[in-house]
Amino acid sequence: MARSNRKSELPRKLCAACGRPFLWRRKWARDWPLVKFCSERCRRARGPGAMS
User: Fold this and answer.
1) Mean pLDDT of the chain
2) Three-state secondary structure string covering 1-52
3) CA-CA distance, 45 to 35, in Å (whole number)?
4) pTM for this structure?
5) 38 burial type by CB count under 10 A (0-12 exposed, 13-18 middle, 19+ buried)
6) Strand 21-23 to strand 12-14: parallel, antiparallel, or no bridges (unpaired)?
7) Residue 41 and residue 50 in contact, taking contact as beta carbons nearer than 8 Å
8) CA-CA distance, 20 to 36, in Å (whole number)?
């Protein structure tokens, strides 16, 4: 049976560093509530104390 998820149905968040919206990704499935940045680049640019 095929999945019927469309991109428009996926959860979204705003990046804490750049403010752009980003969509849920399969690799983030376990820790989606903890994800705050759209990319590794934004996470690094924010600095070491950003996750608290």
Assistant:
1) 84
2) CCCCCCHHHCCEEECCCCCCEEECCHHHCCCHHHCCCCCHHHHHHHCCCCCC
3) 15
4) 0.68
5) buried
6) antiparallel
7) no
8) 11
pLDDT tens, 16-35?
999 999 999 999 999 999 99
The answer to whether 46 touches 16, Cβ cutoff 8 Å, is: yes
Q: What does the alpha-carbon distance between residue 49 and residue 52 come to, in Å, rounded to a whole number?
A: 6
Q: What are phi and psi of 22, to 5 degrees?
A: -140, 155
Query: Given a cut of 60, is residue 37 above it in pLDDT?
Result: yes
User: What is the band of 3 on the pLDDT scale with cuts at 50, 70, 90?
Assistant: low
Tokens (6 digits) for 10 = 């996926």
